[in-house]
Amino acid sequence: MPWVDMVGYAAALAVLSSFSMSTIVPLRILAIVSNVLFGTYGVLAHLYPVFFLHSILLPINLFKLAQIQLFAGAAAQAGSNGS
Once rounded to an integer, what is the mean pLDDT over residues 14-36? Predict the structure, then answer.
């Protein structure tokens, strides 16, 4: 099996695994991993629609993860100041 196909299968496995996540942070992290893998696969296999889709989804997932982390940090800060 060519290594390019292995990248594609790894990306598919990452997406499949994301469906088993029950919390949002691991889901977003796995989505970012799958975006990178699918983007790489899209370029290497000359599947440009796949590349374009995941190059758009990657910053969205990064932004959403950053929002979650900032909200969690702000909530923790508010909780420690409110005691």
Answer: 94
C-alpha 2/C-alpha 42 separation (Å) is 14
| Number of domains into which the chain is organized | 1
Torsion sign, CA atoms 26, 32, 35, 41 = negative
Residue 37 contacts residue 10 (beta carbons within 8 Å) = yes
Full-model pTM: 0.85
Cα–Cα distance for residue pair 21/30, rounded to 1 Å: 9
The alpha-helical segments, DSSP class H, found in the chain are: 3-18, 24-44, 48-81
Q: How far is residue 34 CA from its own chain's centroid? A: 6
